[in-house]
Every structure is written in C-alpha cells, then in structure tokens.
Specification:
The complex is a heterodimer of chains A (278) and B (314). With 278 residues, chain A is mostly helical. Chain A contains 13 helices and no strands. The chains are: A mainly alpha (278), B mainly alpha (314). Chain A: Keywords: Cell inner membrane, Cell membrane, Membrane, Transmembrane, Transmembrane helix, Transport.
C-alpha cells in the first residue's frame, strides 16, 4: 500500500510540475506585458527580468489616455461590439426558429445558402464586399462593420442546431394554448436557449472586439478607429515607448478578460458542443 | 377559376369545398409569411453583405478593374498571371508550409494538454482557463509582446539562450531573420490557438467509455498502450474535426503575420491572404486579387469536400 501510495504521489507530482510549467509558459507573455507596463521604456529589456518593478511607473497608465484617444477607441469598439452582438443574437435566433420549427416553401434551399457559405473564408469575398460598401457610401462608417458582422451563417447554424434539440411538442402545446409563433419564440424558445445564446454572445463579442482586418480596411479616420487598430497606430507612432505600449495593451485586454471570466463556463461548454457536432 | 365550370346544382357543395381549400391555402400562405418574417431580418443582411459579394468575387476574378476606371473583361488573364507571379508562388508555398507545420504542432499540443487536464487535479479549472486565455486575448496586444519577447538583440528569449551559452553569432534572429521568421509566426499561432482545440479534445475525452480503459487494465495494458490503443482511436472523429478546422484556419492566416513580420523579411512569411490584401488595397488590382482569393477558396473547398465525404462514411 505504501509503495502504491508513494507511486501515486510521484506521478501526481510529475503531473503538477508539468501543468505548472506549461501554464507558466502560456501566461508568461501576459506577465511580461503587465510587468513592462509598469516600467520606464529603457528598463523594459533589462535582463535578468525584474518581474515586479521596484519603482512601478503608474504614470504610464495615466499618460496613455492623453497620448492617444484610447477612451474614444474603447468607446467605438464597445459600441460596435454591443450592436453587432445584439443584432446577431436577435436575427440569428429569429431565423433559426423558422428553420428549426416551421415549415415553408424553399426552406431547404434557403438554409443551403447559409450552409454553403459557412466554410467560405471572409477573406475570399472581403474585396467585393468592400466595393459594395463603398458603393453604398458606407466606407469610413461604423455601419459598414455592423452590416459585415451582424448577419452570419455561423450564428443561424448554431442557434438552429440548438433549437432542433428542443422537443417540437412544446411548440405544438403552446399553439394549442393560443400562442402565436412570435410568442412561442419569445416566451418558450428564447428562455430555453440560454446556453446557445451565451455561446453565440461570447463568440461574437470576442471576434468583434478583436477584429483587426475589417476595421483596418474600413476605418481610416482616427476618430472612428477601434481599439485594435488604434493600438496598432499607437505602436507604430511610438515604437520605442515600450512601457506605454504595454500599458495600452493591458487596457485593451481587460474588457475581454472580464467577459471571458464571467462567461467562461458557457464558453467551454459552447466550444465543446459546437466541436462535437462538427 | 375551376368554380365557374362546375354545374349549377353542385354550386353550394363546391363553394363550401373551395372555401375550405381557399382557407387552407390562405392559412398555408399565412404561415409561410410568418416563417419568412422570422428569416427576413437575418437573410436580407446575409444575402446583401455575404452572398452578393461572394458571387461578385467569382465574376471579378475574370475582370480587370482598379476600382475607379471602367471594368473590362479579362478572360483568363488573371489566372495565367498566377503562374508568372513569383510573389504569388511564394505566398502559396508559405501558406502550405505554415499549414503543414502548424496543424500537427497545434494538434499535438492540444491533445497533450487535454490529456493532462482531463485528470482530477487541484485547480483544474484555473489551468484550463489559463490555457484558453491566449485564444481570446486581443491579437494586437499579444503580438506586440511576442515581438518584444523575441526581439533578437534585447528580448528575454535570446537573453536566456545567451545565458545558456549559445554563441551570439548563432542566435536566431526570429522575426527579423528570413530563416526564423516563419518559425516565429508558427510558434505564435500554436501558442494562441492550442487552448481552443484543447477544449474540443477535452469534450472528446469525456465521451470515451470508461469501460474501455477498465478492459485495457484487465488486459494489463500500461499507460502508453492505453493511449495508443484506446484513446487515439476513440478520439478519431475529434482529431479529424480538429484537423479540418485547423487547416482552414491556417489557410486564412493573416493578422498575426501582418503584426509580427509584415510578410517579411523579403517574402519569407508572405501568405495568400496577405497577397490578396496587398493586390486589392495597395495595388488596387481588384480582378487579380479576386483570382488569388479563388485559389484560397478552392483550397478550403478541397478540405471541406474531404470532410463531407468522411462524414458521409461515418
């Protein structure tokens, strides 16, 4: 027993050691970012690394707001992200209800339209899409990015898959009780689809918040820029101001960190289930 | 119309029947309209901003257009140009190299992590979250850190290599070195996305029937044998799915390359999407850019067809 007991401990020590080392490596860039954000630019590359700065430069976190319109960038990004996420949730779950629970002509053809494009990389049609938006006069507007991201095949597909798993009898019972389809969607389907809605929320939030190529193509005016391209602009303008760049990077990470941590349970479940279904 | 041809004596019956037919038809139309009203908000946006541009992309690939002057028919000009364009050929092979190296590397890391974190250990949720975090972290922020950590002159990675006794002359130049730039970008890609695929593998691992392991124990299998003969085959569908996803993601790689190496040095990390971007938004050669986009489309299509066939078999 003792030998067996010792064997188990040796194994678990090895497991813990491996896990801790890997986690440290995975998180090292973030630790470095945080540490460098509190240093003077000339101290950032001092080796051996001083992980906890002896004289933390909190001033960095004050200066970034005046050196670049970081507040405006965050406002722009939040605005875009919230509108896109709401539109995505609303229109996807709405359309998905019809595809999952209603019968109508050309249902399969229309759904095929979504399926056919789900694997189509955006990069294949980003150029014609840009030309179209330019034609509509939407170049250099936030509306362009909203139109581009709010109506995705992925959203409809994800919601439909979830609605398919809700028993149709539930809808039929509600119809007999005199509910119309809109009421069934609002009072029965929506409350039941919280896991799917959370998954879609997180995916949409993270993609929109972190989107780079879209804003880079569409937004050239500084006052319209999102945090990602704003940060990028800051990096190229002040390429030697390492401390400030790191402070701005930390600020850009925080909203995603908050959303991720508060919804991560759903996120993991969502990734896992969407993964299994293929 | 059919009502009028019915003899007068049958009229009451016929009209009753036809009104029934009519109301059934009306109900059908009504329910179809309700269904369409559900679909319309999303489908209209989707049709205008996704389907339309996709169709336009296929047309544009056979045109000459700079975005302002008249659009002219190009026939196969853009297609033949691909074979003479050295940058395209470099971009094509770089995309393939990126895919061939990063897909198995990410897959192996994700599987390893999943097995490690599928065990009952203290703080498991924390470790899983930590592994996953790079995936959601904003790319611009982490890419700039990456460039600093891998800075050839001052970065901590080379400093550590120096302390370990590596000669400064043999020091990798990472993003600034044409032999190491691709490695730098791939390392970044693996680091950033392995947590995501770990979660998919975790779900796959939880789906394995524990009786299989018990049976293997009875047969006296060791940990490695259980991994090879139970875990790997049981994870087959998951691995296939992850491979397909990763391959498509790798074909589309752009952001991290734009931020870490700008496609350089030279064309050493220039990939297809980068070339599409340059041809469209730098050279304004929209037709040719769309032709390169079609190449990307056919690469992704090939992978999707393989996936579809495989799913049919299962």
């Amino acid at each position: 027993m003792k030998i067996a007991g010792r064997k188990v401990t040796a194994k678990s020590i090895a497991v813990y050691a491996t896990v801790i080392v890997i986690t440290a490596v995975m998180l090292m860039p973030f630790a470095w970012m945080l540490s460098a954000s509190l240093k003077l630019s000339r101290d950032v590359f001092v080796f051996p690394i001083e992980w906890i700065p002896s004289q933390p430069q909190w001033q960095n976190y004050v200066d970034i707001w005046t050196k670049i319109p970081l507040g405006l960038f965050i406002y722009n990004t939040s605005k875009l992200t919230i509108i896109v996420t709401l539109l995505q949730l609303l229109t996807s779950s709405f359309a998905a209800y019809a595809f999952a629970k209603l019968d109508f002509p050309y249902k399969n053809t229309l759904f095929l339209g979504y399926i056919a494009t789900i694997a189509m990389p955006w990069q294949v049609y980003m150029v014609p899409q840009f030309l179209l938006m330019r034609e509509f006069g939407l170049n250099n507007t936030h509306l362009a990015l909203i139109c581009l991201q709010a109506f995705t095949a992925f959203g409809v597909f994800l919601m439909r898959q979830f609605y398919m798993s809700i028993p149709t009898e539930l809808c039929e019972a509600a119809r007999i009780d005199g509910m119309n389809e809109y009421q069934i969607w609002a009072r029965i389907m929506l409350p039941l689809s919280k896991p799917a809605l959370s998954t879609l929320t997180i995916f949409t939030f993270v993609t929109t918040w972190n989107d780079f190529l879209g804003p880079m193509i569409y937004l050239t005016k500084t006052e319209l820029k999102t945090i990602q391209i704003g940060l990028r602009m800051f990096i190229s303008q002040y390429s030697a101001e390492y401390g400030l760049i790191m402070a701005a990077s930390v600020v850009a990470l925080i909203p995603v960190l908050i959303v991720f941590l508060s919804l991560q349970r759903f996120f993991v479940e969502g990734v896992a289930s969407s993964g299994l279904k293929g | 119309m059919s009502n009028s041809t019915i003899a007068a004596g049958d009229a009451p019956v016929a009209s009753r029947r036809s009104s029934k037919v009519l109301s059934r038809r009306r109900r059908k139309i009504q329910s179809a309209l309700v269904a369409y009203s559900f679909i319309a908000p999303n489908f209209l946006g989707f049709a205008v901003f996704t389907l339309g541009p996709i169709l336009f992309a296929f047309v544009l690939a056979f045109m000459h257009w700079d975005g302002s002057n008249a659009i002219t028919f190009a026939g196969l000009d853009n297609f033949w140009r691909l074979f003479e364009d050295k940058v395209f050929i470099a971009a094509f092979w770089n995309t393939i190299i990126y895919t061939v190296v990063s897909v198995p590397a990410t897959l192996a890391c994700a599987l390893g992590l999943a097995i490690l974190l599928n065990q009952k250990i203290f703080g498991r949720d924390f470790f899983r979250t930590a592994m996953f975090f790079p995936y959601v972290a904003s790319l611009v922020a982490v890419a700039v850190v990456w460039n600093m950590i891998f800075n050839p002159e001052m970065g901590p990675v080379n400093m550590i290599l120096y302390t370990l006794g590596l000669d400064p002359k043999d020091m990798p130049g990472w993003a600034a070195d044409r032999h190491w730039a691709m490695v730098t970008v791939i390392l970044f890609g693996v680091w950033k996305s392995m947590g995501y695929y770990m979660v998919i593998y975790l779900a796959g691992l939880q789906g394995i029937n524990s009786e299989l392991y018990e049976a293997a124990d009875l047969d006296g299998a060791n940990a490695w044998q259980k991994f090879v003969y139970v875990t790997v085959p049981q994870l087959g569908p998951t691995t296939f799915f992850v491979t397909v996803m990763l391959t498509i993601q790798s074909f589309k790689v752009f952001d991290q390359i734009y931020m870490i190496t700008q496609g350089g040095p030279g064309t050493s990390t220039l990939v297809l999407v980068y070339h599409i971007y340059n041809e469209a938004f730098i050279s304004w050669d929209l037709g040719y850019s769309s032709m390169i986009a079609l190449v990307l489309f056919f690469l992704v299509l090939a992978v999707t067809v393989v996936q579809f066939r495989r799913q049919k078999e299962d």
